[in-house]
Amino acid sequence: MLKRTLVLLILVLIQTGCYTSEETGFYKPVELSAQELRGWEQWKSEFLQLEDVNVGNGSLAAWGRKISANIEVRYASGDDRPIYRGPAIAYVGMRGSVFIHNGVTQNGIMSLEQQGIILGLNGMAVGGKRRMTVAPNLVCFEGAVGQSVSQGADPHTSCALVRYSQRIQGPVRVRKEKLIVEATLTDSCIPVFLDIVYLYSGEFRCRTTDLPRRDPAAPIWRIY
Which residues neighbour 75 within 8 Å (Cβ) at sequence distance 6 or greater? Predict the structure, then answer.
């Protein structure tokens, strides 16, 4: 009976169409031009204060990767109460479907929406811990590379720090103020997507990679 079921499943997959994609098609990382790269590095150096408490030895949080971290976020104004403490996830520098940008489905995982925190995680190695201070310019900022940082969200309004997964209600709100973030990188990998027409479309595994490698002589604000 099991053998017959497997045969039928294979026939269905052949008929409907089945393929995997890794850094291809809709899910290929968006390539940064030299100007865009300089822009990101300028923002990272000007609006982030970064300190590596512990340098990890695993895969780097880099462009075109799915990155996961445990983060604790507070206001720099002296309020000791954390805005958020727990796991967070982001797909960095990837084009494609809503799944890539918003489709965090793991229960209890938060989807990062803060460019400042994402920039601060860039260049960390899995197992590493980093303390970052995010200037208000990169808090609630929703602009694109090449735009002026001053064109960010209204400083008198609140915005989402992280967005809950679809299984949990409501976002965490944050004021446009300086943030202190403690982050431990837990994973960085290349997502691999399975597409079975009419049946399933989404990520089914994430491949680890040794590239890019961290340059110990490079400044901490380098973009990888």
Answer: 83, 175, 177, 178, 179, 180
Q: How many domains does the chain have?
A: 1
Q: Look at residue 217 and tell me if it is in a domain.
A: no
Is 215 part of any domain? Answer: no
**187: domain CATH number?**
3.10.50.40
What range does the domain containing 107 cover?
Answer: 2-207
Give 18-25 contacts, CB < 8 A, sequence gap 24+: 18/194, 18/195, 18/196, 18/197, 19/194, 19/195, 20/192, 20/193, 20/194, 20/195, 20/204, 21/192, 21/193, 21/195, 22/190, 22/191, 22/192, 22/193, 22/207, 23/64, 23/190, 25/96
Model confidence, pTM: 0.80
| DSSP codes, the chain | -HHHHHHHHHHHHHHH-EEEESS-GGGSBPPPPHHHHHHHHHHHHHHEEEEEEE---S-B--TTEEEEEEEEEEETTS--S-SEEEEEEEEESB-SSHHHHH---STTPEEE--HHHHHHHTT-BTT-EEEEEE-GGGSS----TTS-GGGSS-TTSEEEEEEE-TTS--PEEEESS-EEEEEEEEEEEEEEEEEETTTEEEEEEEE----SPP-TTS-TT---
pLDDT, one tens digit per residue, over 70-111 is 999 999 998 778 998 999 888 888 766 544 545 565 666 777
